[in-house]
Amino acid sequence: MPSGQCDERRASRTRTQAARSSAQTRLRPHRPSHRLPTPAVDVSSWAAMAGLQSYVDHRVLLILQDGRAIVGVMAGYDQKSNVVLSDSKERVYSMDEGVEEIPLGLYLVKGDQIVLIGELDEATDKAVDLSTIRAEPLPPIRY
After folding, report:
1. Tell me: the pLDDT tens digits for 53-76?
2. The whole model's pTM is what?
3. 101, 104, 108, 114: CA torsion to nearest 10
């Protein structure tokens, strides 16, 4: 076989291989060589966290599973709905002595202990004389 024909066949083969590889490149979607595992996400916790954002830097009342009522300024929270309160006080209700406020300062509350979070209207809260209020303490929640 003359050398011209060999060169022509070689060039034809090279063009065919180049066309195949470019077609494969165009047709294949990009796939990363490794994939990170997708974490299991509890949608309700994301919704709760979005709701907690509106309470940051506001005065809130927390009711806990053991019946305690804690008032403070929400300084922050995390993905487990743990809450950090600054300038916090526990309100202890009594039928005999009214409401006693025990200063706690900077306080961390575990998210799984929180039953209720509500924003307090500071003007209304300051206008109320807590010593005149008589109430039974909240009983702990039992499952």
Report:
1. 999 999 999 999 999 999 999 999
2. 0.64
3. -10
